[in-house]
Amino acid sequence: MMTNQKETNMKVILFEINSESYGVPVEQVLSIEKVDDITRLPNAASFVKGVMNLRGLIVPIIDVRNRFQMGESVVTKESRIIVVDVEDMKVGLLVDSSKEVLDIESAKIEKAPEIIGGPSANYLNGVAQIGDNELLLLLNLDRVLNQDDVADLLKIEG
Amino acid sequence: MDMSQYLGVFLDEAREHLQNLNDKLMTLEQNAEDPELINSIFRSAHTLKGSSGQMGFQNMMELTHIMENVFDALRHQSIKVSSEMIDVLFEGLDHLEAMADTIEQNGSDVREVSGTIKKLQTLTTDGTPDNDAPSSDQKVTVSTVSEPVNTKAMELTDYEKEFISQAQSQKLHVFETVVNLNKDCVLKAARALMISNALEESGTIIGTRPSTEEIEKEAFDQQLVFLIATESENQEIQNKINQISEIENVTVSPINNLEENSPVVQRQQAQDIGPKKQAQKENEPSKPAAAHPAVTVAKTIRVNLDRIDQLLNLFEELIIDRGRLEKIASDIDNTDLKDTVGTIKRISNQLQETILNLRMEPIEQVFNRFPRMVRNLSKELNKKVNFVINGAETELDRTVIEELGDPLMHMIRNSMDHGIETPEVRKAKGKDPEGTLSLSAYYSGNHVIVEIVDDGAGINKEKVLAKAIEKNVVTKEAAQKLTDKDIYHLLFASGFSTADKISDISGRGVGLDVVESKIHSLSGSVEVDSERDKGSKFTVRLPLTLSIINALLVQCSKEIYAIPINSIAETALRRHIEVMSIHNRNVMQYHGQVVPIINLSDYLSITSAEKNNTNEVDQGSSVVMVNHGDKIVALVADKLLGYQDIVVKPLGNYLKNVSGFSGATILGDGKVALIIDCQAIITTQKKLFLKEQA
């Protein structure tokens, strides 16, 4: 029973970008931080907000909204940085807010309907319904952090 | 007995012997008649055979044994050194090295070596003394060594005398324990340690002959003498030591008439030793550690590298906080606080030096693999080369050392392949048919310089240029503007190879550009100089250490950047320099050279909204002359904030494509400052220049 339970449930860190709810699995998240001084990094892609000192570690900060080409984030009191660790890369995601950890039944996760479209569609693992009318978009961090398309962009610029 | 605890010692020792064999074999080829050399080789092989056998590595032992036979035959001059023989012996050595590697990895020395063994055996088949001869011969020499046991002739130091009388006044026995190790005992130091541990169990060791240091270094033959103060009887001690294996014999004899030497001492001591052992215990710690071999054995210890790295990491944190503290102290302006911070700074500077020193290793570790390589290459290429190494003792951070092997190898191969000519060609040019290739290292300020110099053909400028144009590395127009050094440097451009025929030694067009990027990643630089038919020189400059550097902090608008002091030639006030303009570009004169002026605000794309009003600031701003090799550019910054030790932190994997910065550092206030990569500035500047010319 126990193993069954574990398999079917998934803990997700919930955050908001542009009033939409996104989630990443807790296993990929190192910590959630308040926004500190971010040092701008010239020559980097536009969605790289800069680098931040995270207890002695230099962490690049990605403006997720900008990464999804939905404009630039404005840092407010609610803004948070979700530090994730994917394939030996430690990266901070700048999001509008982050409040809770959610248990989601795997059964409720569906493939992202193509109909959603929109800029972020490429970066999703699936969609789950939470609450009555709310959808949770599960991020595929590998794809969010993949820079192949970005490298091409930079080449053109450089 | 469980051998696994000795595995590390065995491997270290085996590698030392293998390295020794390696080095000596190289020399043997030239000095075939030197008996001392052959003896040294023989001894190394003999020891290795013994220790591998004892550790149970049969394959290794057999192979070493057969090689030892060859050395023995050489020793008795029943065979002569030949180049083929050296080849076969090297082949054997390679197998032994590979065995040592697999033993380290999975504890097995199994390896297919029958071919090599056959070749080795044919070396000795004609007129060699049979296999038993060496050992019987050895017996003779060894037994003469172990014979003179001068039990009573041991001279005592004052300290020992004092200790003995002290012990005797406490009714302890003082014994002179003479241990003769088995003549083919291997790992003698380990054996000595076991003996001293056994003795420590029953009493206190007062002194040893030879000294503990020499014992550690195995600088003794078979005999060890321990002075021990104990409550036990001599028979007990004798039995105890006899339980240790590989011991020829033990004699334990009491020492009891010191009185005539030191009655005074004894009386003196008797007073404060009165209340028995207690006092002695208290006295002990103040004595030099020599009284405790078990402790002194730890004079050098092997430390896991991770721990040293951890230490360095912690220290880096400390440096960051120190920066913070300094800032606070200057803000608060309290004398006591300032003094304390000053002291902390001084101590941490010493600490830094100590920690960084822990990570320093002689460059020899990289250098000593090249003689073999050069020898092989010279055979392959039919060239005669005299390979010279200088300054192998120069020390560098081990991170740098680890990474340095490949680039140096590429450059040496390149010099062997393209530089040094064949003997016929050299003769025709009126040069010594034997070429010289030298590899040297030396300190220069905060750098270590490694030079690879050959007296070969030199670099054919025209050929390089033609090739570069053909391969689109430079345009024809730009090519005309290049200096000789620039042209030589084209060798390092990617996709470049001038070799007419592609050999498997170099000239695959992948060698030298990898070299430069590797050296660049170590914050180093490489330069080439050359003269036709005289030879070429590759100069590699490397920083002494990578993790903590001194840097100049500069401010542009509100942002702070760090410029490594290694790159800085000079700083000046903006208003003190005369700006000229060429093709709409600002330049200035610097030591008779025209250098471009780069506004950091532009380079760092600081938007004009953030920029302060230009003209006014220009006057108050400063200029930092940075150099890379012989290239100089002038960087204009709003303000210089001063020099500071900074800890270099990598930008991480995610940002590896971002150029222009060699890392980042954390400032006193916790903010991150980027470290400007001056080499990148200069390279882009050069590219820009070439592009414009084209």
UniProtKB/TrEMBL annotation, chain A:
InterPro entries: CheW, CheW-like_dom_sf, CheW-lke_dom. GO terms for biological process: chemotaxis; signal transduction. Residues 9-150 form the CheW-like domain. PROSITE patterns: CHEW. It comes from the Bacteria. GO terms for cellular component: cytosol. This is Purine-binding chemotaxis protein CheW. It comes from Sporolactobacillus nakayamae.
Automatic annotation (TrEMBL), chain B:
One of its GO terms (cellular component) is cytoplasm. Residues 296-546 form the Histidine kinase domain. It catalyses: ATP + protein L-histidine = ADP + protein N-phospho-L-histidine. The modification Phosphohistidine is found at residue 46. Its EC number is 2.7.13.3. Keywords: ATP-binding, Chemotaxis, Kinase, Nucleotide-binding, Phosphoprotein, Transferase, Two-component regulatory system. Residues 262-292 are annotated as: Disordered. Residues 262-271 have a biased composition (Polar residues). One of its GO terms (molecular function) is ATP binding. It holds the Pfam family HATPase_c. GO terms for biological process: chemotaxis. It is an enzyme of class 2 (transferase). Residues 1-103 form the HPt domain. Residues 548-687 form the CheW-like domain. PANTHER family: CHEMOTAXIS PROTEIN CHEA, SENSOR HISTIDINE KINASE CHEA. This is Chemotaxis protein CheA. It comes from Sporolactobacillus nakayamae.
